[in-house]
Amino acid sequence: MIEVLLIVVPLLLAGVAVVWPAERTRPWLLPVAGVLHVLLVAVLLVRPSSSPVNPWLGFDAVSRAVLPMVSILFLVCAAYAVSYLRIRADQSNKVFVAMLLSLHALFSFALQARHLGLLWIGVEAATLLTVPLLHFNNTARAIEATWKYLIVGGTGVALSLLGSFCLGYASLHGGGTGDLTFAGMVSQGPALSRPWLVAAWVLLLAGYGTKMGLAPMHTWKPDAYGEAPGVVGAILAGGATTIAFVAVLRVKQVVDAAGGGAMTERTLLVFGLFSMVVSSLYLLATRDFKRMLAYSSVEHMGILAVGAALGTAGLSAALYHVWNNGLTKGALFLSAGNIRRAARARTADTVSGMAWCTPVSARVLVVGLFAVTAMPPFGPFFSELGIIRAGLETHHGSAVAVFTICLLLAFIGLTRLMFAIVDGRPRAAARMERHAGREAAGVVIPPIVFLAFSLWLGLAAPPLLQKSWSSAAAYLEAVR
Amino acid sequence: MNDAQNLLVGMAMGLNLIGLASSRLTSLIRAAAIQGMVLGVLPLLLGHGANWWVILVAAATVVVKGFVIPALLRKALRAAHIDREVQPLIPFVPSLLLGAAATVGAVALSGLLPLRPEHAHSLLVPGSFATVVSGLLLLMGRAKAIAQVCGYLMLENGIYMFGLLLIGSTPIMVEAGILLDLTVAVFVVGIIVDRIQREFDTLDTRRLTELHE
């Protein structure tokens, strides 16, 4: 019952947002939905229900491991959005608020979907709802980014639908009765038709990999994240990519159960390392600090894919990294959004000295940079260490070497650009902003909260969560 | 029954090539629309009997793909005063040859994939793969936003063809959801095309070059 409320509550509030008469008070619906959602998830987390999970839609081990992160991410972003939309009062916020709330409902839906078709519907609908959020700024650049997102993302979801059909046919050919729940297909196991299984894995990995932003299907990401408002970037980088990663994991479970484990691991490892190499090279070259965050996101998707290829221990560390990535990226996107608004520019050629203009946001950005490049004691350090350890235990020495070199290159690229923006003499336009005093508490506290979460995950990740990651990994890998 | 079905799939495959070869955007839209209608009729011939659900899906597909979407696209064309694709990224003859090669390849590939006995003599699998590849060629090879939308429609038609293999066995709810999603997708695309037109005063996606590294 509660698992359905997770979807219904944000959806109802989205409906309320559409009919809500007052522009000024409408954004408050976002934190209301966020608080209710976090409370519902907390109940599910602390008091798991004893009845068996619905085979179509339910709060199973995998949703348990990632859905609470998405819930926290949304709540903090919602608090930020209230202040952000007050600053951006030049635009109507009706569509923005309604779409953000519906997107939250769809994330809850897709993360709990345990049926091949329902999962696809969730991912597709989330892709479409993102469109109005991306061109909120309504500039020519934003519309260009939206078009590229729609064409690349649309092709990605189309391919994943074709892959879903192939997997369905594999089940049908193997004597299945048309039961396309993941549990049903896992129990069919090796009976699934092998050639169709291979076709399905290729198409589904390409499709959902596009949504994750794995290279070489990542091309929409720098454009979309670069042009979208910071708060949308945070929700996409932490939420939308997570549902795509979970989709890959659920499909992988079926393919593994059918005896394709060696194939899934090899392909995920190759795609993961390739994404890391490509993104770390782009990080060395880019001058735009919002596009930089997108490449960093591509890199972290690569880390997740590598983790998922390294057995139970690696997968458990990858699920831990889902949390670290989502919450640390939140701090970066929100503070970068603040800096971008104050500087009215986006590249290191035109922005400098932001430590003077936006002192709090610039400091959050620098600390967040160290967190996301895996400095102890922040969370990402420990999850990436876990992945490296899993790689060494499973004798993937050369993969671990590439992994570490890419992390180092990314660190060099990120720090180089970040300090170019933060240090130096501020430009004239930004100096005026300082006098306008635009660094309101409402837009600097949420990124600090994200940093606190990142620190908390590193220093004192609660045993309840650690257990949820390891049991989700065990659940997904038990089929081998 | 099977012959009529294969005839329609064959027509759809021919329409792929017509779409790839046509330089006039109106004929590309027409090819995509006819293909959508041909495929819309197909479920009626699959031998599941004419129950109300199959008839409903068929009617909705024919109306949406055959009339509503083409009308939207023609409206966008008139607003933008464009008529033909002048300089495609992949020229017409090579894209036609690639499309023909894809058709041959699809037939060869589907020979490798095992089929259930009731689908053994059906062209649905090669037809689906050939249409998907043709759609991708249009998406990648054309510069006009309208032509890319037509490519996306063909891609969808190909996937729809494959979905027909499963129509008897997947639950109704999922099919309804998928159909609804595809429809919404096209409307969203239509709105964005309109925005591009207003903002850039053109539907040439080559003008969308502000964002790069």
What does this structure look like?
The complex is a heterodimer of chains A (480) and B (213). Chain A contains 19 helices and no strands. Chain A has 480 residues and is mainly α. Chain A has one domain. Chain A is globular, with a radius of gyration of 21 Å. Helices cover 72% and strands 0% of the residues of chain B. Chain B contains seven helices and no strands. Chain B is globular. The model of chain B has no long low-confidence stretch (mean pLDDT 82). The interface between A and B is large, with 46 and 42 residues.
Task: Describe the structure concisely.
The complex is a heterodimer of chains A (480) and B (213). Chain A is mainly alpha-helical and 480 residues long. Chain A has 19 helices and no strands.
Notable features of this structure?
heterodimer; A: 480 residues; mainly alpha; 19 helices; 79% helix; B: 213 residues
Provide the helix percentage of chain A: over 70%
- Helical percent range of chain B? over 70%
> What Rg of chain B, in angstroms, do the CA atoms define?
18 Å
SS class of chain B: mainly alpha
For this structure, the quaternary state is heterodimer
**Tally of individual domains of chain A:** 1
List unreliable stretches of 5+ residues of chain B: none
Would you report the number of β strands of chain A? 0
Continuous helix count of chain B: 7
* CA(first)-CA(last) distance of chain B: 55 Å
**From N to C, what is the helix and strand string of chain A?**
HHHHHHHHHHHHHHHHHHH
The biggest beta sheet of chain A is recorded as: none
How much of the residues of chain A is beta strand, in percent?
Answer: under 5%
Q: How many DSSP helices of chain A?
A: 19
Distance between the termini of chain A: 32 Å
Overall outline of chain A? globular
- Backbone structural class of chain A: mainly alpha
Strands of chain B, total number: 0
Mean of the pLDDT scores of chain B? 82
Shape estimate of chain B: globular
